[in-house]
C-alpha cells in the first residue's frame, strides 16, 4: 500500500465566522496528482489556504494529516518545512526583496544550510531558462511589476527550487495566455515526473490538465465534495459544466 | 523552532556582533570604560567654563571670542517648543568637556591607549580602515584619539585633519572663513551651544579636480556618562572634486541623559560632488540635536544618506542650499523608532539657483510605541527658475501603539517650479507574511525580510559593509517582535 501524503477528514473551515467548507474528505497517495474543480465560490481556494495554514482560515472541525501527522495547529512555515508548498492564485508583491535572495533564504530555512551561491545560481539559471523566465528577473523585487503570467511562472520556479513533496496549485492557469499555459503545464509535468511530487491542482479550467497525468478528480460545490472520480470526470465537466453537479448535494 | 533555525541564528550572531542596539543586549556598544577619562569639566555652563575650555584648547583669540559670543546667544535663545519634548535634558547636568586619559592623538592604533583601542576594535573601526577606507578619524568623548590618512590620498593633496589640529595649522584662515558661517550660532539654541563648547571633529579639504576614490570616515564615540559631544565637521570639496565621507556614531547606555550637539558644515564648489553618509546608532538615553548643512555651487551635487536608529530624542534635518545654477541634491534617509524613542527627522532644501533640482526620499519605521516624525521643507526662491523638487516619504508602522507623522512644508516663489510630494503610511500585510511563511520562512524572519525590503532603497545607497550593518540593525530591532 502506498503511503498517503495527505488525508483530509471531515474538514470544516470558516472565514470570519462564515462556514465555507462544510465537511470535506480527500486522500492523496504519494506521487499522485489530484484535481479539485468547482464553480466560483465553492470553496476551492479556501481548501488550499486551510491546508497551507493561512491563519484567516479557521479549521472548526475535522483533521488534516500530512505524512500521517496532524498539522491543523501548525503554522504555515512548519507545514512548508515538512514538505508542503502552495502556488498562489495572486502571488504577493514584496518590494525590496529580490527573487533570488528570497528563494535562497527559503531554502536555507527549509534545510538549515545556506546554499552555496555558485551552485544555487547555476540551478536557478537553468530552471529559469526552462520556464522561459528572463534571468534578470532573479534580481528583481519579488512579483513587483510582474505580469500575471510572470507571477505564475515565478511560482512554478519556486516549486522547482524548493522541491516539496506536496504542491497545492491554486488556479495556476488563471490569467495565462496559451503559450504561458503550455510552459507552466510543462513545468508541472517536470515536477510530477522528475521529483515524483504529489499534487493537488485547484482549477476551474481543464486546459492546463491536457498534458498532465491525473489520478483522481473531485468536484466541489458549496463547500462539499459533490462528485469524485478518475480523469474522465474532467472531460465530463468540460462538456457539461458544473450545473450537473450542483443539484447532487 | 527547529534546530536548523537555531543554527542559522548562531551564524547570524557572528555578523551582528557589532550592531547591538536593543536595550536588552547591546553588549558591544555598551562597553563602558569607567576609568577612561582623566579630566572632565564640572557639569553646567558658564562664561568661566567656556574660557577654561578655550584656554585648554589653546584657541586663537577669534575663536575664544566666538565661543563667548555664542554663549551669550545660547543664554538668550529659547529651547525649541515645536518638536519632541527635551525637558529631560538638563544642561546643568551635562558635562561639556571630557578628556580621555593619555590624550594625545595618534596615527597608529598601537599607540592609542589600550582600553580605548579595544572599544574601537570591537566596533570594527581599525578593520574597516584596513579594508575599505581612505582615512579614519576616531573621536572618544571630546577628543580625537586616532587620525590617519592613506599616503596616496595625502599625495593627491587631500587634507583630512582633526579639527583642532587644523585650527593650529596653515588652514586656520580657511577655517576662520568658513567656521559656523553656514550654521551661525544665532540659528537655534543648540547651534549656539555648539559654538560655545565645540571640541574635536574633522576638517577635510579636497583640492580642485581631485577625486577621492574610497571613502573617508569619522567615528564618534561618546563614552563618558552625563556628557555632551560637540564635534565640528567642516568639509570643503573644491571645484570639480569628488568625495564620499562617512560618519558613524555610538555610545553605551547610561541612566542619565547624554547630549550630542554636533555641527556639520559642507561646502560643495562648482561641479563638485559630495556624498555624506551617516549611520547613527546612539544609545537610547541620548538627545541627538545635531545640525547639518550644505551649500552647493553651480553644477555641484550633494548627496545625503542618513540612517537614524539610536537616541532617545532626535532633532535632525540636514539642510541643503542649492545656490549655484543647475546644482542638485539628493537625500535618502531611514529612521527606525523603537520603544521609548521619539525621532523627529527629515530634510530641508532651499533652491536659490536657476535650474536646480532636489530629490528627497525617506522611509520611516516605528515599533513598540516608538514615534517617528518626518518633516520636510522645500523653499524655491524667486531666482530659482525652472527648478524641480520631489519629496517622498513612506512610513511603516509595525503595531498599533506606534506612531508615524508626516509634516511637509513647501514655499514656492516661482511660477514654473515642478514640485511633487508623496506620503504613504502602511502596515505589514498579513497576506505578505503568510506568503513568505508558506515557503518555510518563520514569521519573525518573514517580518524582518519585509522590513528590510522596505529599507532596501536606502541600504542600496550605502557601501556594502554599511548596508550589511544596517540590515543587521533592522533584524536586531525586529527580533522578538512576535508574540
How many helical stretches of chain A? Answer: 8
The span between the termini of chain B is 14 Å
Strand content of chain B: 25-35%
Counting copies of identical and different chains, the oligomeric state is: heterodimer
Shape of chain B: globular
Topology (elements, then pairings):
The complex is a heterodimer of chains A (249) and B (483).
Chain A: E1 4-15, E2 18-29, E3 33-37, H1 44-52, E4 57-66, E5 69-70, H2 76-81, E6 84-87, E7 94-98, H3 99-111, H4 117-130, E8 141-142, H5 148-162, E9 166-170, H6 178-194, E10 198-203, E11 216-221, E12 224-229, H7 232-240, H8 243-246
Parallel strand pairs in A: 3-10, 3-11, 6-9, 9-10
Antiparallel strand pairs in A: 1-2, 1-4, 4-5, 7-8, 11-12
Helix pairs in contact in A: 3-5, 5-6
Chain B: H1 3-16, E1 37-40, H2 47-57, H3 61-76, E2 98-100, H4 114-122, H5 125-132, E3 135-140, E4 143-149, H6 151-155, E5 159-162, H7 163-167, H8 172-178, H9 189-197, E6 201-206, E7 216-221, E8 228-229, E9 232-237, E10 242-250, E11 258-260, E12 263-268, E13 273-281, E14 286-289, E15 291-296, E16 301-308, E17 313-316, E18 319-322, E19 328-337, E20 342-351, E21 357-366, E22 371-380, E23 388-397, E24 403-412, E25 418-427, H10 430-437, H11 443-454, H12 456-459, H13 464-478
Parallel strand pairs in B: 3-7, 6-9, 7-10, 8-11, 9-12, 10-13, 11-14, 12-15, 13-16, 14-17, 15-18, 16-19, 17-20, 18-20, 19-21, 20-22, 21-23, 22-24, 23-25
Antiparallel strand pairs in B: 1-2, 3-4, 5-6
Helix pairs in contact in B: 2-3, 3-9, 10-11, 11-13
Amino acid at each position: 500500500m502506498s503511503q498517503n501524503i495527505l488525508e483530509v477528514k471531515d474538514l470544516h473551515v470558516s472565514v470570519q465566522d462564515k462556514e465555507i467548507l462544510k465537511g470535506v474528505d480527500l486522500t492523496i497517495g504519494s506521487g499522485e496528482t489530484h484535481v479539485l474543480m468547482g464553480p466560483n465560490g465553492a470553496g476551492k481556494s479556501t481548501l488550499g489556504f486551510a491546508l497551507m495554514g493561512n491563519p484567516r482560515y479557521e479549521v472548526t472541525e475535522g483533521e488534516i494529516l500530512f505524512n500521517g501527522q496532524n498539522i491543523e495547529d501548525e503554522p504555515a512555515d512548519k507545514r512548508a518545512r515538512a514538505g508542503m508548498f502552495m502556488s498562489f492564485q495572486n502571488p504577493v508583491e514584496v518590494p525590496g526583496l529580490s527573487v533570488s535572495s528570497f528563494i535562497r533564504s527559503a531554502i536555507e530555512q527549509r534545510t538549515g544550510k545556506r546554499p552555496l551561491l555558485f551552485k544555487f545560481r547555476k540551478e536557478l539559471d537553468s530552471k529559469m531558462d526552462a520556464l522561459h523566465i528572463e534571468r534578470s528577473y532573479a534580481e528583481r523585487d519579488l512579483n513587483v511589476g510582474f505580469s500575471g503570467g510572470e507571477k505564475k511562472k515565478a511560482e512554478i520556479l519556486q516549486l522547482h527550487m524548493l522541491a516539496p513533496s506536496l504542491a497545492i496549485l491554486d488556479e495556476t492557469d488563471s490569467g495565462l495566455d496559451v503559450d504561458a499555459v503550455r510552459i507552466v503545464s510543462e513545468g508541472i509535468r517536470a515536477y510530477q515526473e522528475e521529483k515524483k511530487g504529489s499534487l493537488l491542482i485547484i482549477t476551474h479550467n481543464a486546459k492546463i490538465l491536457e498534458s498532465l497525468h491525473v489520478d483522481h478528480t473531485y468536484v466541489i460545490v458549496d463547500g462539499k465534495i459533490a462528485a469524485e472520480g478518475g480523469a474522465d470526470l474532467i472531460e465530463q465537466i468540460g462538456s457539461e459544466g458544473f450545473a450537473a453537479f450542483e443539484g447532487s448535494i | 523552532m527547529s534546530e536548523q533555525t537555531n543554527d542559522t541564528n548562531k551564524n547570524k550572531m557572528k555578523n551582528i556582533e557589532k550592531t547591538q542596539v536593543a536595550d536588552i543586549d547591546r553588549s558591544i556598544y555598551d562597553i563602558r570604560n569607567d576609568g577612561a577619562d582623566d579630566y572632565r569639566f564640572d557639569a553646567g555652563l558658564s562664561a568661566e567654563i567656556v574660557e577654561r575650555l578655550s584656554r585648554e584648547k589653546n584657541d586663537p583669540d577669534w575663536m575664544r571670542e566666538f565661543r563667548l559670543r555664542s554663549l551669550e546667544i545660547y543664554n538668550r535663545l529659547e529651547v525649541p517648543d515645536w518638536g519632541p519634548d527635551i525637558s529631560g535634558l538638563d544642561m546643568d547636568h551635562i558635562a561639556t568637556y571630557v578628556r580621555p586619559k593619555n590624550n594625545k592623538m595618534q596615527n597608529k592604533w598601537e599607540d592609542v591607549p589600550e582600553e580605548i583601542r579595544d572599544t574601537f576594535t570591537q566596533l570594527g573601526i581599525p578593520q574597516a580602515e584596513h579594508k575599505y577606507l581612505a582615512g579614519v578619524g576616531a573621536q572618544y568623548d571630546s577628543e580625537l584619539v586616532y587620525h590617519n590618512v592613506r599616503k596616496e590620498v595625502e599625495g593627491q593633496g587631500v587634507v583630512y585633519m582633526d579639527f583642532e589640529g587644523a585650527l593650529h595649522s596653515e588652514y586656520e584662515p580657511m577655517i576662520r572663513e568658513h567656521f559656523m558661517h553656514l550654521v551661525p550660532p544665532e540659528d537655534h539654541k543648540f547651534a549656539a551651544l555648539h559654538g560655545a563648547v565645540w571640541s574635536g571633529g574633522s576638517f577635510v579639504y579636497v583640492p580642485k579636480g581631485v577625486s577621492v576614490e574610497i571613502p573617508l570616515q569619522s567615528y564618534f564615540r561618546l563614552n563618558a556618562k552625563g556628557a555632551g559631544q560637540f564635534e565640528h565637521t567642516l568639509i570643503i570639496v573644491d571645484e570639480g572634486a569628488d568625495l564620499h565621507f562617512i560618519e558613524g556614531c555610538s555610545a553605551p547606555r547610561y541612566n542619565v541623559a547624554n547630549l550630542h550637539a554636533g555641527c556639520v558644515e559642507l561646502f560643495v564648489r562648482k561641479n563638485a560632488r559630495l556624498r555624506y553618509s551617516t549611520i547613527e546608532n546612539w544609545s537610547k538615553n541620548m538627545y541627538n540635536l545635531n545640525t547639518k548643512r550644505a551649500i552647493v555651487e553651480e553644477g555641484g551635487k550633494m548627496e545625503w544618506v542618513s540612517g537614524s536608529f539610536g537616541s532617545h530624542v532626535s532633532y535632525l534635518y540636514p539642510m541643503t542650499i542649492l545656490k549655484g545654477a543647475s546644482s542638485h541634491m539628493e537625500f535618502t534617509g531611514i529612521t527606525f523608532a523603537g520603544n521609548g524613542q521619539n525621532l523627529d527627522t527629515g530634510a530641508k532644501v532651499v533652491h536659490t539657483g536657476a535650474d536646480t533640482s532636489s530629490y528627497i526620499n525617506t522611509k520611516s519605521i516605528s515599533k513598540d510605541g516608538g514615534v517617528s516624525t518626518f518633516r520636510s521643507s522645500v523653499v524655491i526662491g524667486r531666482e530659482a527658475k525652472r527648478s524641480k523638487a520631489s519629496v517622498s516619504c513612506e512610513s511603516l508602522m509595525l503595531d498599533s501603539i506606534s506612531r508615524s507623522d508626516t509634516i511637509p512644508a513647501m514655499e514656492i516663489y516661482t511660477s514654473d517650479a515642478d514640485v511633487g510630494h508623496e506620503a504613504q503610511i502602511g502596515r505589514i500585510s498579513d497576506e505578505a507574511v503568510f506568503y513568505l511563511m508558506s515557503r518555510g520562512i518563520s514569521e519573525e524572519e518573514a517580518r524582518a525580510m519585509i522590513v528590510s525590503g522596505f529599507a532596501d532603497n536606502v541600504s542600496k545607497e550605502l557601501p556594502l559593509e554599511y548596508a550589511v550593518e544596517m540590515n543587521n540593525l533592522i533584524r536586531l530591532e525586529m527580533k522578538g517582535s512576535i508574540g
